[in-house]
Amino acid sequence: MIKLYGFSVSNYYNVVKAALLEKGLEFEEVFTRGSSDDDYRSKSPMGKVPCMEVEQGAISESQVALDYLEDAHPQPALYPADPFQRAKVREIMRVIELYLELPARRLYAEAFFGGRVSDETKQEVKPLLAKGMGAFTRVARFDPYLAGAEFTYADLVGAIHLPLIRDAHRTIYGEDPWAEVPQIKPFVGKVRERASMQQVMADYKAGLEAFLKQMKSGG
Ligand SMILES: N[C@@H](CCC(=O)N[C@@H](CS)C(=O)NCC(=O)O)C(=O)O
Known about the structure:
Elements: E1 2-6, H1 11-23, E2 27-31, H2 38-41, E3 51-54, E4 57-60, H3 62-72, H4 83-105, H5 108-113, H6 119-139, H7 153-173, H8 184-192, H9 195-216
Parallel strand pairs: 1-2
Antiparallel strand pairs: 1-3, 3-4
Helix pairs in contact: 1-3, 1-7, 1-9, 4-6, 4-7, 7-8
């Protein structure tokens, strides 16, 4: 059976988990927050989560795991069949991850976990997020899904990463980055109605509560 290493507060973990659920595959969740120990790094070389273990071995990097799942289990399809349309889906995923999630991640310690982020970092990240949002609005179609009429992996990535990025942005800068892109909210709402997302979000809430409780108690 497929094993998915990670924890339910991780957005990247949740993308792969939602994909496994969408594909209707059986899998076992193996709790880890990532690790620098040699054993885990032999599966996930950067020590990050998620990491997915299949019969032949381990696969790290969420988007690589998604591609594997599509190749190994093509139905239900989560990429379009047409190569160009498939590339456009990957483009949206890449834009969200590289130009929105990665800069926003630099704010998470303060936005979500009671840490502190320097003013310099905050100043540096703000224009990056504005540029990333500009790029995202150029590639996203909201018709009603991000790449058009078909539900794809890009929608799982969008519905999981975008709310986190908005929450971090609002907390740190006191501004709602979705104010000028009103299509995002109904899009996220639509994707979150799916059974896969309902399960992922319920597990996320429970995981976050436990995580914050443990942090407060110094664990
Ligand atoms: N590019 C990676 C990003 C994964 C990632 O950043 N995971 C975070 C949790 S959301 C993590 O493992 N952080 C711990 C670390 O960086 O050591 C992917 O797509 O899987």
